[in-house]
Amino acid sequence: xxxxxxxxxxxxxxxxxxxxxxxxxLAVRSDSxxxxxxLIFLGSGAMVALISLFHIFLEQHERVERLEYAEIEAxxxxxxxxxxxxxxxxxxxxxxxFERWGVPTLTILLLLAQIATLYWLIWKKLGPAYxxxxxxxxxxxxxxxxxxxxxxxxxxxxxxxxLFLRGKYVCAMARHGGQxxxxxxxxxxxxxxxxxxxxxxxxxxxQFNYAIADIIGGWVLAAGLILLALENLxxxxxxxxxxxxxxxxxxxxxxxxxxxxxxxxxxxxxxxAHTLDYQFGFKVSETWGYQFLQxxxxxxxxxxxxxxxxxxxxxxxxxxxQALLERWGQRVAGREVLEPGLHFKLPWPADxxxxxxxGRVQNFNIGFVPDPAKEKETTSVWTASHAKEEYDMLVSTxxxxxxxxxxxxxxLSVSIPVQFQITNVVDWAYQNAEAxxxxxxxxxxxxxxxxxxxxLDEITTTGRSNAVTLLRERIQQSxxxxxxxxxxxxxxxxxxxxxxxxxxxxxxAVGEQQRKQVRILEAQAGAYRxxxxxGAEAFRRVAVAEAEFTRRTARLMxxxxxxTNQIQAFNAAPQVYPQRAYLASLERALVGVRKFVVSxxxxxxxxxxxxxxxxxxxxxxxxxxPAKTP
Length: 630
What we know:
The chain is of the alpha+beta class. It folds into 4 domains: about 1-240 and about 250-265; about 310-355, no CATH class; about 360-500, 2-Layer Sandwich (Tetrahydropterin Synthase, Chain A), CATH 3.30.479.30; about 505-585, no CATH class. The protein has 17 helices and 13 strands. The strands form 4 sheets. Strands 7, 10, 11, 12 and 13 form a 5-stranded antiparallel β-sheet that branches. α1 runs antiparallel to α2. The protein is elongated and about 195 Å long.
C-alpha cells in the first residue's frame, strides 16, 4: 500500500504539472480569461500535489524506520540496548516538524501565490477585458472569439478526459484504500476537469459571438479563487491558535474543503449532507427541512431556470431604441425591426434581441486617443501633447513661386472627432460584419486622402473651414457606398499642429518666416511713406510756385491797370494827384508806427522822444467798444 501511495503521489504531480503546462498553452493560444483562471486552480493543485508527495515520502520513511526498529527489537528480544522512546526516531521527528512548521509555511506560500495570481487575473486581465468589451458594445462593435479555436478546444477536451479519469481514480482510492494524503491532489485534478469543461464551453460560446461568456466565466472562477484564498487564510490562522493534543491526528492544511466539496466523486447531495453534519455537529441531513429540499430539489431548480427563461419571452423596446429580432441566428420575416413598445418572442436562446439607438449621437476619433485629464487644460501649445496618444499623418507640401521644397510631404498631427447617427439599423447590423470598425476605417481613409491633396500651409491657416465641409461630404459618400446606414453629423478639426517632437523646430522656422515678413512689410511701409512724402513735397512746391506765379502775374497786371488809371487821374488834376499819392504812400508807410504831433510852431521847446518799445499796452491804448444807446 505504501508503494501505491508513493506511486500515486508521483503520478499526481506529473499529471498536474503536465496539465498545467497544457493549460498555459491553451490560455495563451486562445487568450481565454476562463482558461487563465482555470490555470491558476490547476497550478494550485500542482503545488498541493507536490506538498502531498513530500508528506507521503516522510510518512513512508517513518513506517520503514518503525518496521526496521520492530525487526531489530524482535531479534534482540527486548534487551535494554534497543529500548528506545518515541522521540528517538529521526523519520518521525522529521514528519512532525514538517507537519508543525513546513505545512503551515508552504500553505502560506500557496496563499501568497494565489493572492498574486488573483491580482494579475483581476487587474491585468479581467478588468481591462471587461472595459474593452463594454466600450466595443457601446460603440456597436460585435465581439467574436479566437479566429482558430479548434486546437484550444481539442486541448480543453483532452484535459477534461485526463483530469477526470485520474482525479476520479485517486479520489476513490483515497476514500476506499485509506490513502488520505492522495485526496488533496486528487480533488484538484477532478475539479480541474470540471473547470476545463467550462473553458471548452466558453470557447464554443465565443465563436457564436457570446464573448461575454468568457468574461463571466473568468469572474466566476476569480470569485472561487477568492473563496479558496480566504479558506487557506482562515485555516492558517485557526491552526496557529488551536489547542494541540498529543496523539491527535494532524489536519492537513493544504487539503481544501472547498475543493473537496466541488471535486469529490461522491454525489453532491451526500457531500453537502456530510459537510453540514460536520459543521453543525448534529445530523442536519435528517431534519425535515433538508429532506423536503432534497425531495423537491429538481422542481425548485426547474423553477429557478424556467422562470428566467420565460421572462425572456417579453421584450420592452424603449422610445429611443430599435431592435433586431433573430431566431436561431436568422432574421424573422416581417419582424426584422422591432419599434418602441411591448413585444413577445420565443425564449432565449431561440430568439435574440439586439438593441440599437438610431437617434443617439455616437462618436469616434481619428488621429488621436483622447485623455480626459488633458481635455481640462485651457491652454494648448504645439510643444505639448494634447491627447494620450497622437498619430502622425502625411500632408503634401506645395512649392512656392521661386522657392525650392526639400520634401513633397510633411508630417502633421491632426485631431478629428467624428459624430454620427444610425439611420438604418438593418444596414448597420447586416451589411457589414463590423460596421463601426468599417466606418472608422472609411473615415480615416478619406482623411488620409484629403491631407495628401492639400497644402500644409493651407490646411493650417485658411483652409480649415473648407476642410471640414469637404471631409464631411467625402466620408458621407463613402459610408453610403458601403451601405453603413449612418449619417455624419459633425466633423471637427480641433487640433492641427506639427508633431510634438519637431514642434519647437517648426515654431522656430515659422518665427523666422514671420520676422522676415515683418522686415519686408516694414521696408514696404518705409518705401510707401518716403514716396508719399516726396510726392506731397513735390506737389506742395509746384503748388507754391504756381501760386507765386499767379500772385505776381496778378500783381503786375494790377499795377499795369493801375498805371493806366493813374495816367488818367494825373491828366485830370496834375497838382492834386501827386500830393494825394504822396500822402497815400506816407499813410501806408506809417501804419503801425507811433506818431507824435506838435501843433505849436512858435515856441522853442525841447522835445524828448522815448523810442523804447512798450512791453505791454497801456490802459489808454485799449480801444473801448462804443456805448450802447438806449
